[in-house]
C-alpha cells in the first residue's frame, strides 16, 4: 500500500486536489491518502465552502498555520508538517500549484527522505518578484515526479535538465473540477438583486501585491476599468488581502459592485455568464479559456502562455493605459475565440492515480532493500 500525503493550503489548491482525492476513492486499490490542510487559508469563504461544495472529505490533519509574513507562514507550515511526518511518515508527498504551502511541505518531505510529486510542475512566469514563482522554482528543484498541464511546462523542465522519465503530461486537474461541476453551478444571491443580465456584466478579481498593496494603484486601476466599461456593471469579489486596501479608498466608481469572495459554484457561474473577466489570477485564465469567456490579464507575464496562444486570454499588463483599447475591442465584439489545450479534458485526476500506482518511491525501495 502506498501512503500519499495530499497537501492543500490555500484557495486555489482545493479545486486541484478534489479530482485526485475522488480518483483515489474511486480506484479503491493500492493507494491510501492522508489529506493535510496546512491552514494557510482558514476563513469559510476561502476554504471550508470549497470543501463542502466540491465534496472533499475532512482533512486528516489541519496544521493551523494561519496568516503571517512569507517566512512566518512557511515556518509554521514546515513545523506542523514535520511533526506529522515524525509521528507517522508517509511514502509520497503530493503538492499542487504554487502557494506557500506547496513549497513548505515539499521541503519538509524531501528532507525527511520522502519523495515529492508536484502537480502543475514546470510552469514559469519568469517574474521572480512573485512569491509564487519562487515557490515553483524551489518546489521543482526538489520534486521527483512532475505532473504537467502543458507542452510548455514539459519543455521548461527538460531545459532544466529533468529526465523525460520523471515528467508526466497529464493535463489540468482544475479543469477536471470545472467540467465535473459545470451542470451544478449556482446563481449568486446578489445576481437578481443587482439585476445582472447574462453576457452583460464584467467580473474582476485582483489580489496580487503589485496591483493591490498600494491603495493609490488599486484606485487608478479600478477607475480605468470603470471608465472603459461603458456603463456595464463590474462585479468585484474581493479577496481579504485586497479588502484591507479597498477600505482605505474614499469612494469607488458607481458601476463597481464589491462582493465577498464567492464559493466555487457561484464564482464559476459568474464567470461563465460574464461578458469578460479582468484578473491578475493565473488559474482563472485557464477556466475562462475552457469556458470560452474573454479574459484580460492585468499582469506583465503569465506562467500559463497556452491561455494566450490557444485560449481567450490576453496579457494586458499592469499599465492602466492598456485597459481602454482592450475594452473597446471587447465591446465592439472583436475579442478572439479560443481553443481548449490538449488533455484539459476532465480526466487528469484518473491519469495521475494510474501513474501513482506504478511508482517505485524511495521509501518502498528502502523497505525492499532492508
Ligand atoms: C495566496 C497565494 C496565491 C493565491 C491566493 C488565492 C501564496 C504565496 N499566495 O495568496 O498564489 O492566488 O492565495 O487566494 O501562497 N486571509 C484571511 N482569511 C484567509 C486567508 C487569508 O483573511 O482565510 C488574509 C490574511 O490575513 C492575509 C491575506 O488574506 O492578510 C493574504 O493571505 P495569504 O495566504 O498570505 O496570501 P494570499 O494573498 O491569499
UniProtKB/TrEMBL annotation:
Its EC number is 5.1.3.23. The keyword Isomerase applies. Keywords: Isomerase. It comes from the Bacteria. SUPFAM superfamilies: UDP-Glycosyltransferase/glycogen phosphorylase. The keyword Hydrolase does not apply. InterPro entries: UDP_GlcNAc_Epimerase_2_dom (IPR003331), WecB-like (IPR029767). Gene3D superfamilies: Glycogen Phosphorylase B. GO terms for molecular function: isomerase activity. Residues 28-357 form the UDP-N-acetylglucosamine 2-epimerase domain. Belongs to the UDP-N-acetylglucosamine 2-epimerase family. This is UDP-2,3-diacetamido-2,3-dideoxy-D-glucuronate 2-epimerase. It comes from Rosistilla oblonga. The lineage of its organism: Bacteria, Pseudomonadati, Planctomycetota, Planctomycetia, Pirellulales.
Amino acid at each position: 500500500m502506498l501512503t500519499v500525503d495530499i497537501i492543500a493550503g490555500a484557495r486555489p489548491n482545493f479545486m486541484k486536489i478534489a479530482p485526485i482525492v475522488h480518483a483515489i476513492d474511486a480506484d479503491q486499490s493500492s493507494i491510501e491518502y492522508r489529506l493535510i490542510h496546512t491552514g494557510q487559508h482558514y476563513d469559510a469563504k476561502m476554504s471550508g465552502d470549497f470543501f463542502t461544495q466540491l465534496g472533499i472529505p475532512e482533512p486528516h490533519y489541519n496544521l493551523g498555520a494561519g496568516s503571517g509574513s512569507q517566512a512566518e507562514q512557511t515556518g509554521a507550515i514546515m513545523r506542523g508538517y514535520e511533526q506529522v511526518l515524525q509521528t507517522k511518515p508517509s511514502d509520497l508527498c503530493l503538492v499542487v500549484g504554487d502557494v506557500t504551502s506547496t513549497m513548505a511541505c515539499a521541503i519538509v518531505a524531501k528532507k525527511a527522505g520522502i519523495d515529492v510529486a508536484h502537480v502543475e510542475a514546470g510552469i514559469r512566469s519568469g517574474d521572480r518578484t512573485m512569491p509564487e514563482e519562487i515557490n515553483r522554482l524551489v518546489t521543482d528543484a526538489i520534486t521527483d515526479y512532475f505532473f504537467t498541464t502543458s507542452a510548455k511546462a514539459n519543455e521548461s523542465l527538460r531545459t532544466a535538465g529533468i529526465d523525460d522519465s520523471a515528467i508526466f503530461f497529464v493535463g489540468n486537474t482544475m479543469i477536471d473540477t470545472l467540467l465535473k461541476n459545470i451542470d451544478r453551478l449556482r446563481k449568486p444571491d446578489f445576481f437578481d438583486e443587482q439585476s445582472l443580465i447574462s453576457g452583460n456584466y464584467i467580473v474582476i478579481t485582483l489580489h496580487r501585491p503589485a496591483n493591490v498593496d498600494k491603495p493609490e494603484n488599486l484606485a487608478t486601476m479600478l477607475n480605468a476599468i470603470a471608465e472603459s466599461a461603458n456603463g456595464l456593471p463590474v462585479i468585484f469579489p474581493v479577496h481579504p488581502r485586497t479588502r484591507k486596501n479597498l477600505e482605505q479608498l474614499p469612494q469607488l466608481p458607481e458601476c463597481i459592485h464589491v462582493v465577498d469572495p464567492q464559493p466555487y459554484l457561484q464564482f464559476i457561474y459568474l464567470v461563465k455568464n460574464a461578458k469578460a473577466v479582468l484578473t491578475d489570477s493565473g488559474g482563472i485564465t485557464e477556466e475562462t479559456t475552457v469556458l470560452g469567456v474573454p479574459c484580460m490579464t492585468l499582469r506583465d507575464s503569465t506562467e500559463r502562455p497556452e491561455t494566450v496562444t490557444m485560449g481567450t486570454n490576453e496579457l494586458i499588463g499592469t499599465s492602466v493605459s492598456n485597459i481602454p483599447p482592450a475594452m473597446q475591442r471587447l465591446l465592439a465584439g472583436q475579442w478572439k475565440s479560443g481553443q481548449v489545450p490538449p488533455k484539459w479534458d476532465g480526466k487528469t485526476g484518473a491519469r495521475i492515480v494510474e501513474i501513482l500506482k506504478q511508482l517505485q518511491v524511495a521509501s518502498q525501495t528502502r523497505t525492499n532493500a532492508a
